Amino acid sequence: MVTAICGIERHQITLTGETGHAGTLPMGSRRDALVGAAKIVTAINTLAQSTPDLRATVGALDVQPNVVNAVPRQVRMTIEIRSPIDETREAAGQTLATIANEAADQGRLDLNIQRSYHQPAQPCDPALTGTLGTAVMETGDIGLNLPSGATHDASAMAALCPISMLFVRCRDGVSHRPEEYAEPADMGRAILAISHFLKGLGRP
Fold first, then answer.
1. pLDDT tens digits along 21-67
2. What ranges do the domains of the chain cover?
């Protein structure tokens, strides 16, 4: 059973330094934007690895001039942070700002950082989730409780009514990729569980 849909925030970061020829520009004189970006990538990954219920992803990097023998002058990058706990996500966003400023200072880089998107977490309704868990057990299965890292239509529906969700396991845990595959038998058990769930809604 799904406990909550993760909240999301996205940050756009631009680091600007100075380009130069890879063979003639001394290491100590460089203002390499990609080196600064690498520090941010490493630090935010370390933060997410060490913080429960937190996921952080650097999904896009645009390097300029992107030439094999030139020091990178500018890097534009996106960082997405997700958590089912808004306080955890927001604290990570604040830490990201500190990380980015430190990387820029160390590399003598100009920094522009903006939060471009923000969506709060959406908890699932405890009563509905409890009924759903009972329905799963009535089919002979044992349900697991976990948050949804991906956003679903239920996030929008939550503004209109209580929500609950049931996940069906996928082979090797792979989802949201072309290789995603759920066994027909598992999908059949999920349908049976939903049937029990709907009947359970009418019980006193």
1. 999 999 999 999 999 999 999 999 999 999 999 999 999 999 999 99
2. 2-119, 124-201
Residue found by looking up tokens 């100075």 in the block: 18
Sheet holding 122-123, edge to edge: 122-123, 2-5, 146-148
Q: In this predicted structure, what is the pLDDT of residue 204?
A: 58
Which residue carries 């997410």 as its tokens?
48
164 close to 125: Cβ distance less than 8 angstroms: yes
**Residues of 108-139 as b/e, b for ≥16 C-beta within 10 angstroms?**
ebebebeeeeebebbbbeeebbebbbebbeeb
pTM for this entry: 0.89
Is domain 2-119 in CATH 3.40.720.10, yes or no?
no
Return contacts of 18-25, CB within 8 angstroms, 24+ apart.
18/71, 18/73, 19/65, 19/70, 19/71, 19/72, 19/73, 20/70, 20/71, 21/69, 21/70, 21/71, 22/68, 22/69, 22/70, 22/71, 23/69, 25/71
Q: What is the pLDDT of residues 181-197, one digit of tens each?
A: 999 998 999 999 999 99
Reported as a single tens digit per residue, the pLDDT across 26-38 is 999 999 999 999 9
Q: What is the mean pLDDT of the chain?
A: 94
Helix, strand, coil abundance in the chain, percent, nearest 5? 40, 25, 35
Residue whose C-alpha is closest to residue 195's, from 136, 130, 143, 129: 136
